[in-house]
Amino acid sequence: MYEKIDWERPRFCTGCLSSHQLTHSHLVPRSTNRDLVCEGKNIAIHCMECHKKWERGVDVEDMLDFTINMEILKELDRDYYNLRTAKLM
Known about the structure:
By secondary structure, the chain is an alpha+beta fold. Helices cover 43% and strands 11% of the residues.
C-alpha cells in the first residue's frame, strides 16, 4: 500500500506542505483498528513533525489537513472519531 501511495500522491506533507522527513501516517492508529492498516484512505503523507502532532493530538487544529482527516475518521471509524472529537473539547 505504501508504494501505491508514494506512486499516486504528491510527495509533500498534507499537514504543512513540507517536503522534508516524510512518512506514512495512519489516521486511525494501527493499534486501534487493525482492519484499517492497509486502507489507503487511512494513510496520510506527513512530515515527522505533523506525524507526531497527529499521533499525540496536540495542535492538530493547526494542520492544513485537519478537517479532511476528521472527515476520514468519521467515515472509517466512528468510535475513534468520537474519541478524537471529545479530546479536542
